[in-house]
Automatic annotation (TrEMBL):
It comes from Pararge aegeria. GO terms for cellular component: membrane. This is Putative GDP-fucose transporter. Its main location: membrane. Residues 14-252 form the Sugar phosphate transporter domain. It comes from the Eukaryota.
Length: 255
């Protein structure tokens, strides 16, 4: 009996530590990205390029870990390659959602403050409930619907307060709502794609980042960032590249 309680306690502690680490890394990632996207130290008006570079960092880390099999006696990383027709056919549609999700979230973060960004992200729960009913035909309880109503009301209050403070950004809000929608769609379709990669979340992250590097290229051109990059003067700054790499590592940790 005592062994069972000890095992249960150990399990709860492990879950607590994992969730705590996730929140710490998640919050740190948001602040790092905010500094990159709208901070005066970087001052680069190319949010999609910044997001694209973070995908490259994540891809390099995943590629290295996949090649070595992970870190010995710490964790194992499954072997695989994204350059396979069968894998691409199954994963690329999800990777498009992944690309749009991280692009929209970073575009939102560029135009709004961190507190309002988190308020916007809370709409993901509402979209999860709505899309689960629309796409998966899963019934929703009354309590769950009431919680969603409170979230929507909280979002309305957030918009109202931002408007009163004079810091409301319609474009940032649209990006935030669209980003939450894409995150919800991505979460739902991830469940369908995981069996194609043997339920390996690490492998799916590896493939998503590989395909996103390619998908981002036309988006960077369409967003008019080529001329911005051409005229940017801080590419020789060590501080700039350190921040960019830290942002990429944080993105990998969240993924």
């Amino acid at each position: 009996m005592r062994d069972r309680q000890s095992e249960l306690c150990s399990k709860y502690i492990k879950i607590f530590l994992v969730v705590s680490c996730y929140w710490v890394v998640s919050i740190a990632t948001v602040f790092v990205n905010k500094s990159l996207l709208s901070g005066q130290s970087v001052h680069l008006e190319a949010p999609l390029f910044i997001t694209w570079f973070q995908c490259i960092v994540s891809f390099v880390i995943c590629f290295t870990l996949s090649s070595t099999g992970g870190i010995p006696r710490v964790f194992s990383f499954p072997k695989g390659t994204p350059w396979c027709r069968e894998v691409a056919r199954n994963v690329v549609p999800l990777s498009i959602m992944f690309t749009l999700m991280i692009a929209l979230n970073n575009l939102c973060l560029k135009y709004v403050g961190v507190p309002f960004y988190f308020i916007g992200r809370s709409l993901t729960t509402v979209f999860n409930v709505a899309l689960s009913w629309i796409l998966l035909r899963q019934a929703t309880s009354l309590k769950c619907m009431m919680c969603c109503a409170f979230i929507i009301f909280g979002f309305y209050l957030g918009v109202d307060q931002e408007n009163l403070l004079g810091s409301f950004s319609l474009l940032g809000t649209i990006y935030g709502v669209a980003g939450s929608l894409m995150l919800s769609l991505y979460s739902i379709y991830t469940k369908k794609v995981l069996p194609c990669v043997n339920q390996e979340v690490w492998l799916l992250s590896y493939y998503n980042n590989a395909y996103s590097i390619i998908i981002f290229l036309p988006l960077i051109v369409i967003n008019g960032e080529i001329s911005v990059l051409w005229n940017y003067n801080n590419f020789d700054s060590t501080y700039f590249w350190v921040q960019m790499v830290i942002g990429g590592v944080c993105g990998f940790a969240i993924g």
